Structures are given as structure tokens and as C-alpha cells.
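pls ignore typos typing on phone
S-(P-nitrobenzyl)glutathione + seq
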Amino acid sequence: MTPTITAFERSPDGGMGLARDTRVRWALEEAGQAYEVRPVSFSAMKEPAHLALHPFGQIPTYEEGDLVLFESGAIIFHIASRHAGLLPDEADARARAIMWMFAALNTVEPPILELITAKFAEGDKPWSQERLPLIAERIRHRLGQLAARLGDAQWLDGAFSAGDLVMVSVLLRLRPSGILQEFPRLAAYVARGEARPAYRRAFAAQRAFNTARPPAG
Ligand code: GTB
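k done
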């Protein structure tokens, strides 16, 4: 059965691949799983039909027969669990790949989201200019730790896994800030992720989706 995911009708980033449908598309491409995409407008996201799929009124969602999922991490874990290539078969290596998915979402992504919120939702507050460097330092601390663990390895734990897919997706969102480029090992790690054919297909698909159709009236 072909799954259907939801994405912004038109992403505010104009197709830069920063919205979270891109990471789900990437996982589906790595898995070789065809999928359909249903666009959702900002207003439709808050309507009962979409809230029945996603209680927080967001994208992405994932529908496959009777199964409905929200949360990009849970969706990617589901895809990775059912297809070869994203999680190792060996039990301990599999557990570590899942650990890296959680690390990306629970430890690395939160300060990055804080920075984005501080810039775009709180940038006009009088305290914002004092707060931004504090958040940036927290991110630098985390990235320093991550870069130390990655070392000269290609991926976080042996072969590329869903852990890398989520970590690269999380780090990508830092690029506009310039902070990622301060960590050459991590910048190269992200570039390796982006160079994967599956990522390139996912990126191109979301870009076409966000640019090919006329803007919503
Ligand atoms: N924890 C959830 C998950 O991982 O799935 C978070 C989902 C989420 O934040 N969804 C966002 C959303 O639906 C889109 S991805 N927002 C609408 C709302 O909450 O009303 C976040 C995002 C949005 C825009 C850009 N951008 O334009 O650059 C990048 C990322």
C-alpha cells in the first residue's frame, strides 16, 4: 500500500528542504518506498479533519491503510523498521542507531529550535539580542561534543542508518545561522548526507512541490 504523507501546501522556506516532510521523504527514498504527498494549508492544519490525524495541527503525518502516524521521528522509525537499509540487523547496532535518532531529536535539536524561535518569533523583544548569544553558545557546546564523537568517521556508528538520517536533518536547519560551518567535521558529515542519492531525490521532490504549483490564493 502506498503511504501518504502531508506537507506544507507551500513551505515558508520556499523549498529549501527545512520543513520536516523532507526527512520523511528522505527515509522513504532510502527505503525505496513510493509515496504520495497531500498538501495542507496553515488554516487546514487547524481544522478537525487534520487534527484527527495530528493532534497538534502540524505536518508531517503519515497514513498507510488504517495506520496514522505523526511526529517525524516516529514516522522514520516506522519506515526504518519495515524496510531494509535504515536500521542494522544486528541487535546491538540496531539499538545504537535508534539511540542516535533519539539523541538527534532530544539532545541536539532542542537548542537549535530554541535559536530559530528566538530569532523569528522573539526577535523583536527587548531581551532578544542578549538571549541569542546564550543559545548559540549552548548549540556550539553540543556540536563540539557531537563532532568529538564523530571524529573522522563517515557516520555515527558504522554504516549509514536512520540515526544519521535524523541527525543530518536536524543539523541542516543550522546552516542559515552559520554555526554549522564552524564545525568542519559536522559540515562535512551533513554534506555526505546531502550527497546521498535518496536525499537528493527527496530534496528535489519537495522543491518541485513547493515551487511548481501556483501559490495558494
Ligand atoms: N516534533 C514534530 C515532528 O518532528 O514531526 C514537529 C512538527 C513541526 O514542527 N511541524 C511544523 C508545522 O507543522 C513544520 S516543520 N508547523 C506549523 C504549525 O505548527 O502550525 C517546522 C518548520 C517550519 C518551517 C520551516 N521553514 O520554513 O524553514 C522549517 C521547519
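Strands lie at 4-8, 36-40, 61-64, 67-70. The first helix runs from residue 21 to 31. more later
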